[in-house]
Amino acid sequence: MRVVSKIRGDKRLERQAGIPAQLPLGLRVAETPLQKFFEARQQLLDTLPIAAALVAVSKSGKTFVECSNPIFKRYETPISTFDGDDAPILERNGLGARVRAFLTSGDASDEFVWNDGSPIEQRHFTVKMTRLVDTPDDKRRCMVFLLDQTAQVRTEQNLRREMLSDSLTGLPNRAGFTELLEDAAEQDGHFAVLVIDLVRFSRINECIGAIAGDELIITVARRLLKAMRSGDRLARTGGDEFGMLIRLVDGPGDALHVGRRIKEALASPFRLTDLEIRVDCSVGCALMLDEQSDVEKLVRHAQFALKRAKETGKIEIYQPTAFHLARHRFSMETELRRAIEVGQLHLAFQPLIDLSSENVSGFEALARWEHPEHGTIGPQDFIPVAEESGLIVPLGRWALTNAARTLAEWDRRAGSALPVRMSVNLSAIQIVRDDMCAAVAEALAATGIAGNRLTLELTESAIIADPERAVRVLDGLKALDTTIAMDDFGTGYSSLAYLQRLPIDILKIDRSFITGMLLDKNKIAIVRAVLSLADALGMKTTAEGIESFELSRTLAALGCATGQGYFYSDPLDTDQAYDYLVARNS
């Protein structure tokens, strides 16, 4: 008679060990070596502090769990059975397939990430597998360990969500918007990026306060969301700037259509507590084509279009030609800065002729740029760049000092003070940003030139930009005994009140009225009117663009005091100008 005993195992293991299932209750055959192996294996699994199971492959090729510890059994239960997904763990989300592939591969170990459950409610695991060899029955088995990373993954997801989201509106921030663009660039189809900037928001924020300003931003975001089509994405990319990613279904016209919807959505007033505020916006757009995947460049293009939109007041779509021109201007700014530092600039001098005596009464100093690679760059190209970048301030000081120094050098060559003046142009930017009175005083003191020999020319735009400041600056310049001339008179919008109020000595009639004047009665009438106005206000006049003898004589007969133009001379270098002065006035 065989000895029987109780075995702490399950029926599945008993069947695998060959133990009859119909023996009387509580009676089993004596433990075999295989049974002892199963018991030892279970005890080992139970002592492990992580989820562990022994998985084998049946003859039919199906994977099954032979035994597992209590921690593993907790994960065998599905998270949710909402969709009827109560399948065993090895049949969920491809886990069994990965284990089976490992057991048939011959590898000793493997590791991968596995997610269990639906995307809404999900566990995240790192799965590690180790092959078992030399088992008593020679089956293919492996140990499977589940390392639960759910808490860590959710923390990382929350941190990432915070990093990519705007705390005020809950929309994606600039970094989140960049990710949206990168995802869109990997897909097939056409997209567009819209950049929306709120006009005058900083001023509104200063008036109503930061808290009300935040409330306004939230309300604007809600309206923009309502203006979007299904599938479009909105982000807050700056303080008062929003970005929008839209799909182009019917071509670029979709971008204009969405842009108009945005403007319409913001057209009606916003009510904040007791205030009613109107907010306008500028919209710039750039198109994302199949062959374009550089999202940073795409955003720069949209920003460039936004800048143009602020100038035109329209919805602007990026145009490569305009962008290349802007990039060329930016490159020119860098080279102009270097040119000022290394001395690539020089002055040319165009004679000013007294129309009654035909003698030289002065010179206008004109900046010229000789680029070592591109040759001569005209002032019509680099002066606007200098004004936009602020380089006009050091450039203007350089021109002022060198013009005064040249006049002082001519005096030394002549042995006495010459009866000529030097005219220097002032930009509206210089009037606003620089201390022109101090700059002129320093130039006069450094060269010893009297103030009455320096004429400062400025356009009407320098006055209109800030009339009160212009009055103060011009009064300060007049205190230095300098002469003030209004350049390009007739092409701006200054009123007669400004002419009466400002200490202006000379009106320079723009060349557009002088050129072709003899064949146009209207131009003659305009020139007569300017001359009469100057005479009534006690001002002298200078005509620009004289290109013929007949024109010079007609202007002299009409009472114009001074003239300049190619009929008399092109702009000359320092030595040529001095020789021209001596020859003409001898």
Automatic annotation (TrEMBL):
Pfam families: EAL, GGDEF. Residues 189-322 form the GGDEF domain. PANTHER family: BIOFILM ARCHITECTURE MAINTENANCE PROTEIN MBAA (PTHR44757:SF2), DIGUANYLATE CYCLASE DGCP (PTHR44757). This is Bifunctional diguanylate cyclase/phosphodiesterase. It comes from Sphingomonas colocasiae. Residues 329-585 form the EAL domain.
